[in-house]
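Anyone else keep sequences and structure tokens together like this?

Example one:
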Amino acid sequence: MKQQTVAAPIELRGVGLHTGTDACLRILPAPADAGLTFVVGAVRVPATAEYVVDTSRATVLGRDGVSVSTTEHLLSALFALGVDNADLELAGCEVPVLDGSARPFVEAIRAVGLRAQAAERRTIAIDRPLALQNGDRVVAFLPAPALRVRFLADFPAPIGTQYYDGVVDPQSYEREIAGARTFGYLHEVEALRQRGLALGGSLENALVFAPDGPLQPLRWPNEVVRHKVLDLLGDLALLGAWPLCDVIAIKSGHELHALATRALRARALEAAVPGVA
């Protein structure tokens, strides 16, 4: 497959989920082999694993004193749709949350289309298993001819245990993953806000669970684990290449995803995989 970029500039405005501040994002075409790069003022922050600076509630990238928060939904959409190269200009320090899923990003990208480029798409083929574990949380990469994700999520009631298994391509992602919203428990909201987080969260951009169930209609019965897959794909975008592997994730989150992605990227660099830099 050839590398791709967006066919025309895209502009999206909204509020940051955690900061509560207004944010403006512009997705701009970039040349082949440029990769995905956040641009904040004069600072360019490559969307690769080496630039992860925080994973406490979102994947935060940073460089030269500049940080970009809540990158995972945007990166998930770009990665899954096959956008290899783009400048992501951001006014503010957080990507707008929009409806809490990746669907608005997908719709905006689909509206302008993609432009094929001359260079071949970067890929990483897994030649031997790689697994990371932290207690009962696991992420493992296994050799396979295509990207497949199997995710087991387990949360306190009323969410419970949920499972997702599927091959990832642009069509399946748009149909099965992109619309799954970020989520949380009603009792967590005040605690998060006391920590300076979730200041922009609302029922318009997050799926909230009260003790007896969700406060909004679910888009899928297992919407929570689908959103976990969405987040995982956003974190895998930090490989800077498309992985050909089975990904098995058990109760994992941004921290373990970042460690696993960094380890897999380091292995690819050591093996001098073409295009991974």
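And example two:
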Amino acid sequence: MILCLAQVSPYWNEPKRNLKKMRDCAAEAVEGDASFLVFPEQCLTGWNPSDDSLATDESGENISTIREIAQDYSIGILGSFREKDTDKLYNTCIAIGTDGKTLSKYRKIHLFSPGGEDNMYSPGESPCFFPYDSCLLGIAICYDLRFASVFQAYRDAGINLMLVPSAWPAARIKHFHLFTRSRALEFQTFVASVNTVGQTPVDSYNGGSCIAGPDGTVRAMGSDREDLIFFEIDPLEAETIRKEFPVNLEKK
């Protein structure tokens, strides 16, 4: 499976302009033979831990447009948005298939408490995974990278590729790369972390999207500008490494 990470800079709280950018990325990703496209955290608006504006449910117009893009270009898409569900707000990722239907939906479990995200948003309760092409994919979001328990749950489910949409600030980019590599090595899986880029009212971001292999080595790295990063995922590599070097991880 050829994966494409769309390292983009958001138009702040302008979903329609961001959807146009997503469509352009889908067109370019397909030209590169990608079959699945991943965008950064809260790609429709830009990540803001204290903003509940423009929140929507998955039947809303903006999500419907992402479904159309996936269908028009026959590519799977992972997008991230502010989800409103009754009286609660979630930081949510939605995976959409080439038929425009939902493959999986994940709500961020570990909210970024140092930035007050837990004051506005409610935490998700469970990991979410789904098959696509020859891979079994799991989803985490940004700050989740710091918590091994999330990745342990996915490893127990047998996933071979983790997708991690992020808005990881430039000041801590070394941690972003460290945790991406560490989780890949520790749980013997591919980890693809896609970051945003540019200056927002919240912070400064410098990209550096990263794909690490199940041996912990970096397989692809983004620049510090808007960028599309392509990499072919071989799920058999994760399975082979687990067989050749079996690590019996303690289950809590």
